[in-house]
Amino acid sequence: MKTIDLATGSRDINELLEEARRDDVIVRSADGSEFLLSAVDDFDHEVVLTRRNERIMALLDSRARRAATIPLDEAKRQLDLMD
What we know:
- The protein has helices at residues 13-22, 42-52, 54-64, 72-78, and strands at residues 2-5, 25-28, 34-37.
- By secondary structure, the protein is α+β, with helices and mostly antiparallel strands.
- The chain has a domain at 2-37.
- Strands 1-2-3 form a three-stranded mixed beta sheet, with helices on one face.
- The chain is rod-shaped and about 75 Å long.
- The model has no long low-confidence stretch (mean pLDDT 85).
């Protein structure tokens, strides 16, 4: 990871993006604030969107609270599918 101090000189945004394409970049402003510039891949972006989706998260939470699963033999017996 590389740190670029903008207080020492201005950088072109495209140059910063090109550097972030290769590796994460910390950009430090003149007041000392720091920002992380990082390329986003499709999977990371999808994870963020999924976590923001309240309906999907509620469904996942309800499934996580379910009781233990039923073994296949028991399901077949309950459905009268035994050989």
